[in-house]
Fold these 4 entries.
Entry 1:
Amino acid sequence: MAQLWGGRFTKETDQSVYAFNASIGFDRRLIREDIEGSLAHADMLGKQGILTREERDAITDGLKGILRDVENGSLTVDDGYEDVHSFVEAVLTERIHETGKKLHTGRSRNDQVALDMKLYTRRQIVLTARLLEDLLWTILHTMEENLETWMPGFTHLQKAQPVTLAHHYGAYFEMFRRDRQRMTDLYRRMNYCPLGAGALAGTTYPLDREYVAEKLGFAGPTQNSMDSVSDRDYLIEFVSALSILMMHLSRFSEEIILWNSNEYQFVEMDDGYSTGSSIMPQKKNPDIAELVRGKTGRVYGALTSLLVTMKGLPLAYNKDLQEDKEVSFDAFDTAQDCLRLFTGMLRTLQFRKDRMAQSALNGFSNATDAADYLVGKGVPFRDAHEIVGRLVLYCIDQNTTIDQLPLEQMQRISDRFEQDIYDALSLKTCVEKRLTTGGPGPGAMKQALQAYRAWLEDAGREVFPGVEEDGRK
C-alpha cells in the first residue's frame, strides 16, 4: 500500500515496522471527523481560489459519498492503510482521480489529526454531559420522593447523626453537578481549531483559518501553530474530568454495595441489574456497582498514560502523540458505559425505609440531639456530652436504645431529663430541627431541590457550538 510520504524513500518499509507504525486499527473511528474537517478545508480552498469551483465540488461530492457509503455499510475501512487519513484520501483519489490529490493542499497530517481528535473529543464531551444530566435527573427524582425517608448518616463508617435519603443523595447530586460543569468549562477552553497550522509552521498558501474555524463551530483558530499540533491538554483535561467522575461513581457504588449487603439491607437490587452465584443459590450480587468501582482504575490508567506520554516531548509533533488515541478512546467508552448502567441501576433500586430508620435508632445517631436537649435545659454542652455518653454506655450494656429507656432511668443520670425528651429524640424531630442551609431539614431541602431542578433544566438547554446532538450511543 502506497504511503502519503513515500517519495523520499527508496525501498518499502519493513512490514513489522509498518504494522507497528499504523494506527488504522483504532483511528478508524475518526472517519466522520476526518471527512467533516476535509469538507471544510476543501470549501475554504475553493473560497480562496486555491481550488477551482469544479475541483472543490468534485472533492465535496466525493467525500460525502465516502461518508455515506461507510455509514450504510457498503464501504469498509481497509486495515491495509496506515491510518484513516490515508484511507479517505486513497478512496477519494480512486473515485475522482487526480483532483482527489489536491485536497491535502495547505494541510499536514499533523494539523489534520489534531483537528480530527478535537472534533471527536467535542462530541464525547457533549455525550458525557447529557449522560450526566440523565443521572442527575434520576438522583433528583429520588430526592423529591424521599424527603422523609430517615436513615443514619455516617462518619468513619459509624453511625453519626440521622439524615434523610434525600439529603444523602443530595451529596452525590453536588458531586455530579460539578462533573457536569467541568464538561462546559473544558469544552469552552478546547474549542479552537488547529487546522491550518500545517506540520508546525503554518503554510505559504493564503488559507482563511477563521473561515474554517467558524464553519466547524469553533470559537476561532488556535494562535500558535507549534502548539496547535503538539497540544493534548484538552485530552488530558477531559480524561482527568472523567477520572473525577469515575471516582464519584465509585464512591456511590461502594455505598450501594454496602446498602445491599445482609448487614445493612437498606436496598433491594433490581433483578435486571444483579447476578447470582453458580454455586450459592441464595446470592444476589451487585455486579454493576462492583464493575463500575473496578473500571475506575482503568480510567485512572488512561490519565496516567497520557501524562507520561506527554511529559518529555519537545516541540512540536512527535510520533509518541499517536499513543493518545487508544487510551483516550477506552476512557471515553468506559466512563460513558458506566454512566449509562449506573443510572439504570439507580433508577430501579428499591429502598427498605423501615430498615433504614431502625438502623438510625439502633446506632445512637440521635445522641447529639440528646445532648442538645440538655443544653436547652441549661446544662453546659461539655457536661451534656458526658451525661449522654454515660447514657449510651448504659444502653449498650442493656442492649437497648436511648429512646426506649424509661424516664426514671434517664433521670438517675441527669435530673434535667423530662417527658419531652422522647419527642426530641424522634428521627423526625432530629432531622427537622436542622434548618441551616445545606442541612437535611425539610425547609433547607426544599430550597435545594428547587435550585437543583432549575439548574438542571438550564443545563439541558445548553448549546455546545459545533456539535449536532444527534442521539446518544
Entry 2:
Amino acid sequence: MSLLNLSIATTDYDHFRDIRSGVVKPEGIDLNWLNLGHHECFARFTANREFDLAELSFAKFATQVTRADSDIIGLPVICSRLFRFSSFYVNKKSKIRTVEDLAGKKIGSPEWAHSAAVYMRGWMHNEMGVKLTDVHWYQAGANSAGREEKVEISLPEGVRLTRVADKSLSQLLAAGEIDCAIIARPPTCFLEGHPDVTRLFPNYQEMEEEYFQRTRVWPIMHIIAMKKSILENHPWVARNLFNAFLESKRRSIERLLDPAVSRYPLPWLATYARKMRDMFDNDPFPYGIEENRPTWEQMALYTHQQGIAHRQFKPEEIFPAGIMTKVII
C-alpha cells in the first residue's frame, strides 16, 4: 500500500524530534515536515490552510473549530504548554501589588485570542473577582508594533478593548501608558532592566505548583490542528498520527531523565526532570483527552466567556472519535 503524503508545519520541539526525523514513523503516512516559527504556522494555516496539519494556538483553534462550518479538527497532541503566572509584567508606578489591584487598570496583551492571556484573564475573572469588565484592555504587538488579531472575536458586552497600531506593549508598559502586560515572553523593557518594569508575581513557580495541585490544570498553549477532510477520507489517520506522536514524546522524556543521553548541556537537568515527572503523576507532558480533561474544559469555558469560541465546546467534540478508542495490549 502506498503511503499517504501529508504536510505539517510546527516549531522545532524536542518532543517532536523523532517523528520529524523519521526515527518514529506513523503507520501508513509519509510526513513532509516544515520547521517554521509558531506565528508563521498560525498565520498561514489560519488564513489559507496551507498545510494538512499545523501547530496552532489553542485559543485560535477554539475560534475556528467552533465555527458552524468548521473545516478543522484537533489532535490532543500538545506542542507547547506553560503555566502563566510569570506572564504578568507591571509598571511599578502603577502601585500594583496584588491581582485585585488590577481592577480599574489598563492591561495589554499581544492579541485577544492569545492563549497565555486567555488563561490569566479567565483566572482573574473566575477565581480572583477581577471581572473582564473591570479592566480597560489593550492590544498591541509584544515588542514590535503592528500585530493584528488573526481570528474573529466577539467581545462580551461591556468589555473595553483598545487596539494600538503604532507602539508595542513593551513601549507602552515602560512609558506607563498601560499598567500591566500579560505576555508569553518577557518584554524587551523587562529584559533590558527598565527600572519601572517588574513581574507582578516573582514567586510564580510556587503559585503555579499550588495551582496545579489544586486544579489539575496544566495550561496548554498550542496543539496540532488538522484539516477535517483528511479524516473524512482516511479515518485511520488520526490514531496512527497520535500513536507516533506519543512514541516520539516518550523518547524525548526518556532523554531528559537520563543525563547520559540528554542533548541539553545543563547540570542537574535530569534531576529536575525526575522531580517534574513525580509531580505530574509520572508524565510531565501528557497528551490525550482524559489525561488533560480539566485543562480542555477550562479553556472551553474561558474562550467562550471571552468571546473567542463561538460556543462552549466539549473535548469529545473537537477531537476525532478514533483517538478515544481504548487499545488494550
Entry 3:
Amino acid sequence: MTREFNKWRPHPWHGLDLGPEPPRLVHAFIEITPFDFVKYEVDKKSGFLRVDRPHRTSSLPPSLYGFVPQTYCGRRVKELMPGAERGDHDPLDICVISNRRISHGEILINARVVGGIPMIDGGEADDKIIAVLDNDDIFSHVQDISELPETLVERLRHYFKTYKTLPDEPEKVQIGKAYGREHAAKVIEAAAADYREEFRES
C-alpha cells in the first residue's frame, strides 16, 4: 500500500502524468462512455467535467473516449498530419476498447496504445489514438491495431466521420486510413513535446 497521495485533487489535464510507460502504456482520462447521449468534456480551467452538448445525431461512441494527460495538439502534431493547417490546441484524444461494460466516465485507466485514426476537423489535426484496456481479459493480447477485429476499427472510423453531420449537411471532417502502433507512438511523443512547449516545461 502506498502512502503517497495528492492532498488536493489534481487537474486531469495538467496534474496527472502521461502514464506508466509512454508512449506504449499511457493514462487515459475518460470523459464519455458508449452509453452517454450527452457529450461531456473537461473544463480546461477548473478540471471538472462539463456538459458540452447533447449528441445531435443518433450515433453513440463505440468505445470509451477521453484524452491523454499532459499532451497538446500543436505544431508537431500538425506536422504529422498531411493536409492539416494546425493542431486543434486540445489534449490528444484517445479511444479505449474494453470487453467489459464501463458505464461511467471521469475515471483514469491504463491504456495500451495499438494505433490511431487520422482526422482533420476544420483544418485542424485531431488524431484519435486507439488503445485497449491494459489488463482486459479479451483484448490484453493485442499489440497493434491490425490485431483488432476490422469491423471494430471501421465502426470507430464511421463514428468520427459522421457524428457531427446531420442529414442534408456536407461532411464536416476528413477521416484517413487507420495507422498502427509505431505512428501512434510518434503522435503521442509529438503531443507531449507540444505540451511541454505550450506550458513552458523543460
Entry 4:
Amino acid sequence: MTGEYSFSVPEESDGLRLDVYLSEELSEISRSYISKVIRSGGVFLRDRAGKASDRVRSGDSVRLSLPENSVPEVEAENIPLDILYEDEDVIVVNKPKGMVVHPAPGHYTGTLVNALLWHCHDLSGIGGVSRPGIVHRIDRDTTGSLLVCKNDYSHRKISEALREHSLTRLYETVVYGGFSEEEGVIDAPIGRHIRDRKRFAVSADGRRAVTRYRVIEHMGNYTRLECRLETGRTHQIRVHMAHIGHPVVGDELYSKASFPVRTDGQVLHARTLGFCQPHTGEYIEIEAPLPEYFRKVVEYILSRHKI
C-alpha cells in the first residue's frame, strides 16, 4: 500500500522551497528522503510533478506519494481511548503521556491512530494511510486534548480553521524561573535546528510562530503558565519558552536542568480545545483534566517553597 499525503499550503509557508515545506509538514521523514521522492516524480505541486527547488505559494495543493515499502500497513489495535467528545464528524481524545499520535519510523504500533482505527469504522483520508483523521498533532510526551476528523469534509473545515487561527488551543505548563509580568507574547519564527534534526529553534528563516502566555501561579523558582497557540509549529511552546530563558520542566530536549520528581518528559498539557462543529457551526469547547503527573509536579514544588 502506498502512502498518499495531500496538503494545502498555509499563508505562513508562502515562498518556501518544496523540499523544505514537505520536510516541515512530515517531520518524521528526512529531507534527503523527501528530495529522493521528488526526484522520482512522486510529488505534485499545482497538479504537476514538482522539483525540490520549486517555491510553494499560499493555497497551493501538494500531493506526495510514498513508495510501497516506506509505509507499512497501519492496523487497528484494541487500545483504550479516553474520549472527551464525539459526534458524527469529529472525536476529541485525551492523549496520555508517551503515546505517539501516528505511525512513523520506530513507532508503527501502539499509536493513537492504531487505537482510533479500532474504535472508528471511518476516518478522513486526507492525511494519508498512516495519518487517517489527523489534522493536528501534539508531542509524544505532551498530554491532553487532540481533535480527530472522521470524514474529509470535517478535515477540510478544521484545517481551514487552523489556517485562520480560529481554533482555541490552551495549554498548561510549568517552567523554570519567575516572571515579573503577568502575561506576554512571544512572536519568534521557528525552524529546524541547523545541527540537530530532532530539535527546532528560533530562526530568522523559520516560519512565523506566536505564543501568548499568562501566569496562573507563581511558585518560587518555577511558574505555572497558560499558553495560547496562535500558530502550531512543531515543539512551539517548548522552543519559545526555552528561547526566553524559561524552559519547560522535564523537557530533556530543550533544557539541561534536572527536576527531582519523575516527569517522563515535558510538563505540558493541552487543556482546552475549542472549535466550530464542521456541519452545524456550533462552537464546542472541551477541557482535558490535568493528569496525575502534572498535579504531582505542582504539589512537589508548592510543598518545598514558601509561596
